[in-house]
């Protein structure tokens, strides 16, 4: 069974739209783009559409490909210091040019709505979106065995923390370690498998023994530019497993939770309780 993430995300956006419509002021989001990467362009178009749909005022700031880390950070801080009373969220769109290390990007905590930095008060959007999927499909995580593949700072690690708070038994694995050479060994007892690795066919049907839900967070492209996830095609033929689609799946949830975080920055968590 394929999980209808599009409907889940749309329900979140509808609720956000109603909250903004009833408020005195609309939230404001700054989106910084470095260069003209086609993938970045696609991601930004989606985010701009989302913001327009719900009533968030989004401003795209395009910067040259050859900008340095320091120049980018100075631009962000300059804009924030000048408009700190008006801007609610700042994001830097990935991917960035190779000469810029995302870990060197400095976004003030108060507006770090992507949860980009470890000190951000906002929960990272992708893990938050994954957790919302479980709630939307009515899956009780209490006591479940959950395997999280991938240990990135913005997906794998915060996701583990969120799952532990839901009383899950969590196994976190690094995709490059020897432990993952035989994925079936690791997945054998997993009720839930979440893969955020970015490797095509990383998880296949032979890896899923006792699995109820499979969440595919990974994104990668083949030689023809076609988008793939971490899950192989055969998983989508398994009738007893709920699985997220490759396209229109977790990505839509990530975008929806970005809108949520921007509104939290403007209105506070108490105003947004109906979303989560």
Helices, strands, pairings?
Layout (H helix, E strand, L loop, with lengths): L4 H18 L5 E7 L3 H17 L2 E7 L5 H15 L5 E4 L32 H12 L8 E5 L6 H10 L3 E5 L9 H5 L4 E4 L17 E4 L3 E2 L5 E2 L13 E2 L6 H18 L9
Parallel strand pairs: 1-2, 1-3, 4-5, 4-6, 6-7, 7-10
Antiparallel strand pairs: 8-9
List keywords for this structure.
single chain; Rossmann fold; 10 strands; 2 domains; 276 residues; five-stranded parallel β-sheet; globular; alpha/beta; three-stranded parallel β-sheet
Distance between the termini: 24 Å
- Low-pLDDT runs of 5+ residues are none
Strand order across the largest sheet: 5-4-6-7-10
CATH superfamily of the largest domain: NAD(P)-binding Rossmann-like Domain
**What sequence of helices (H) and strands (E) makes up the elements?**
HEHEHEHEHEHEEEEEH
Find the structural class using helix and strand composition. Answer: alpha/beta
What number is the mean pLDDT? 92
Gross morphology is: globular
The helix content, as a percent range, equals: 25-40%
Characterization of the model:
The chain is α/β, with parallel strands linked by helices. It folds into two domains: 23-111, Rossmann fold, CATH 3.40.50; 125-250, NAD(P)-binding Rossmann-like Domain (Rossmann fold, 3-Layer(aba) Sandwich). 34% of the residues lie in helices and 15% in strands. It contains seven helices and ten strands. It has helices spanning 5-22, 38-54, 69-83, 125-136, 156-165, 183-187, 250-267, and strands at residues 28-34, 57-63, 89-92, 145-149, 169-173, 192-195, 213-216, 220-221, 227-228, 242-243. A five-stranded parallel sheet has the order 5-4-6-7-10, with helices on one face. It has a three-stranded parallel sheet with strand order 2-1-3. Helix 5 links the parallel strand 4 and strand 5. Helix 4 (125-136) crosses helix 7. It is globular. The two termini are 24 Å apart. The model has no long low-confidence stretch (mean pLDDT 92).
